[in-house]
Amino acid sequence: MRPDEAAEALTEIGHRQEQVIRLVLIPKWFWWATAALMVGFTAAVDSRVPAAIAIGTTLFVIGIAATTARVVISAARQAQVRNGLVSPAGVFAILGFVALILAVSLPAAFALEAAGVRYAATYGVLIAAVLMVAGEPVLTRTLQRIMLAKRVGASR
Amino acid sequence: MTARFDELIHAPTRLSIVSLLAATEWADFKFIRDTIELSDSALSKQLTILEEAGYVEIRKGFVGKRPRTSARLSRAGRTAFESHVAALQEIVARSGASVIRAANE
């Protein structure tokens, strides 16, 4: 086999693996839906109105179950990215993302509550939701970069 | 990883299928078909060849009430693929070209 043919085959191999890594990810709407459900639920609890809490809790549970089921079923119709591609670096990226959101939103909520602001928890969760939606593209790109670096043929 | 050129994997369509499967735990038949842009029969034929070689495992099941067929690389298939990639990289490396650049282009 000629070197240019081998290089061409390696390009195809890299391209096909990249296709999977870029296609099979959590859809954007899921992040928006989860963020909205979180804020709605917290606002309902913050209202301290029993009926609002009951409705908010019901909508939250149904909403999270439905959106998660939709993502899982959609994934089942496509493919599951190989677990080994995520690697410890990917796990740390996810944990770091969660830690960053908590590090900003929790102190903000406590500070607002200490200042006597009504619906302090709701504002705290609103901050978390905004960070979640705004940070999702960065997290996604980071995970894709990590997975692309781990694909077969990428590191030699 | 021992480099070993694999004629069975290297056929263009099978190379695409195996490369795609190499990045997955498993992949749905329709997902593979649409991504590689093959007909149902062409994909079935190639998957059968790979399955008979012991490189691919085919799983039939249901998602809800709909029948689903999915495929995954077997351990032997993954090893053969990685050996094949190593063989290709050796060929490129011997020529003095950059393997990483070639794989990432």
Describe the protein's topology.
The complex is a heterodimer of chains A (156) and B (105).
Chain A: H1 3-23, H2 28-47, H3 50-76, E1 79-81, H4 83-114, H5 120-150
Chain B: H1 7-10, H2 12-22, E1 24-28, H3 29-36, H4 40-52, E2 56-63, E3 66-73, H5 75-94, H6 99-104
Antiparallel strand pairs in B: 1-3, 2-3
Please describe the structure with a list of short key phrases separated by commas or semicolons.
heterodimer, A: 156 residues, mainly alpha, 5 helices, B: 105 residues, alpha+beta, three-stranded antiparallel beta sheet, 20% strand
Short structural summary:
The complex is a heterodimer of chains A (156) and B (105). Chain A has 156 residues and is an all-alpha fold.
Structural commentary:
The complex is a heterodimer of chains A (156) and B (105). Chain A is mainly α and 156 residues long. Chain A has one domain (27-150). Chain A is 84% helix and 2% strand. In chain A, helix 2 (28-47) packs antiparallel against helix 3 and helix 4 packs antiparallel against helix 5 (120-150). The longest helix of chain A has 32 residues, at 83-114. The mean pLDDT of chain A is 91. Chain B is an alpha+beta fold. In chain B, 59% of the residues lie in helices and 20% in strands. In chain B, strand 2 (56-63) and strand 3 form a beta hairpin. The chains are: A mainly alpha (156), B alpha+beta (105). At the A-B interface, helix 1 and strand 1 of A face helix 2, strand 1, helix 3, helix 5 and helix 6 of B.
Number of domains of chain A: 1
Give the SSE order of chain B as H and E letters: HHEHHEEHH
Which value, in Å, is the CA radius of gyration of chain B? 15 Å
Largest sheet of chain B: 3 strands, antiparallel
Helix content of chain A: over 70%
The helix-strand sequence of chain A is: HHHEHH
What is the β-strand count of chain A? 1
User: Which overall shape of chain B is indicated by the principal axes computed on the Cα atoms?
Assistant: elongated
| SS content category of chain A | mainly alpha
Point out poorly predicted stretches of chain B.
Answer: none
Helical fraction of chain B: 55-70%
Oligomeric state of this protein: heterodimer
Question: Which residue ranges of chain A are poorly predicted, with pLDDT under 50 across at least 5 consecutive positions?
Answer: none
Number of helices of chain B: 6
| Average of per-residue pLDDT values of chain B | 89
State the end-to-end CA separation of chain A: 20 Å
Rg of chain A is 21 Å
Shape of chain A: elongated
| Largest sheet composition of chain A | none
The amount of beta strand of chain A, in percent, is under 5%
Number of strands of chain B: 3
